[in-house]
Specification:
alpha/beta; TIM Barrel; seven-stranded parallel beta sheet; single chain; 11 strands; about 50% helix; 3 domains; 13 helices; two-stranded antiparallel ribbon
């Protein structure tokens, strides 16, 4: 709620609520309340729980997490639609359960399901006709994997009678931007390689080879975007190409650089990358090119000199004009 109090327009999402660890009635009630308090800016992001260690500590069998997510999401969506739910599973019960207040957003708060390597998340999202969130890279192999996720999503939607849209698919590739490509590489190398080896390799045992865990290799393989805003534009265009299109680009939070460096990375993204894909730079570039290529549009200096001449005053020299601009 602190973020909701300090913002007015950006959407806020849970990224994500692991449903096997939550009672579905509490999730539904809490998010409808948040839907009202944010005036419709809250997105319910859900998933099965990516870390088996969490499930182990909670006494949950990791092999059951995706089944449990499906059961919880089915229940939450029924409650969102105003249904009275009575259900008994091996991990939760509801008796004539209903929401305390109706959602602020019609027909319910936006929902997005995390969809990674398995069909579980994609099929759950498609079955309910809600949004989907995926992370990937820019390689052909990543494109093929993401295309499979989209196909699972689309097929499940069609089976359930929902028309799914690529506008509801959000994709992310880790990125970091700086004023030059070399500066970006130098600022994030240590943080990136530590994260890859210590977290994904040693902690999660994701099969990362420390010998090949170089930032340059990751950039070359397209698993990260590290460089300038132009590199980010090219990377997102590549992601559009290999997936067939999507509705939103996500930034994964990481600690590769310092806080100040990370804020500058986001600033570069907002100033140069977002306007590019919104088409906000097209008119500016067209105008600049027109002025550069149109002789009559560049007569300002001649017109100024004529004004001095008409007044009988000696016009300033080029050097004097340049000095005035510097002041």
């Amino acid at each position: 709620m602190a973020a909701a109090q300090r913002t007015k327009s950006i959407r806020l999402a849970s990224g994500v609520l692991s449903l096997p660890y939550q009672h579905p009635l509490i999730v539904a009630d809490r998010f409808v309340q948040l839907d009202h308090m944010t005036r419709g800016r809250a997105i319910l992001g859900v998933g099965p729980g990516a870390l088996s260690s969490d499930a182990v500590m909670l006494g949950i069998e990791p092999m059951e997490q995706r089944r449990m997510m499906d059961e919880a999401l089915d229940t939450i969506m029924s409650l969102f639609h105003g249904e009275v739910v009575t259900i008994e599973t091996d991990w939760f019960k509801l008796r004539e359960a209903r929401l305390q207040i109706a959602p602020y957003t019609h027909p319910h708060p936006p929902v997005a399901v995390a969809a990674a390597g398995s069909p579980a998340g994609a099929r759950a999202a498609g079955r309910h006709g809600v949004g989907m969130v995926s992370f990937g890279g820019l390689s052909d192999e990543s494109g093929q994997a993401l295309s499979r996720i989209w196909n699972w999503y689309q097929e499940a939607g069609q089976e359930a009678g929902h028309s799914v849209s690529r506008e509801n698919w959000r994709l992310g590739v880790p990125f970091y931007l700086a004023d030059s490509r070399q500066q970006a590489i130098e600022e994030v190398r240590a943080g990136y390689e530590h994260e890859l080896v210590e977290y994904f390799g040693n902690t999660l045992s994701s099969g990362v080879d420390p010998a090949g865990a170089s930032l340059e290799a990751a950039i070359e393989q397209g698993s990260v975007i590290v460089g300038t805003p132009d590199d980010a534009v090219a990377g997102i265009k590549r992601l559009q190409e290999i997936t067939g299109g999507f509705g939103g680009f996500l930034a994964r939070a990481h600690e590769w650089g310092t806080w100040q460096q990370t804020i500058h990375s986001y600033e570069l993204f907002s100033r140069y990358v977002i306007p590019h894909f919104r088409g906000q730079l097209t008119t500016k570039r067209s105008s600049q090119q027109w002025v550069a290529n149109t002789p009559d549009a560049k007569l300002s200096r001649t017109a100024v000199e004529k004004a001095f001449s008409d007044a009988g005053i000696e016009p300033p020299t080029v050097e004097e004009q340049a000095a005035a601009r510097r002041r």
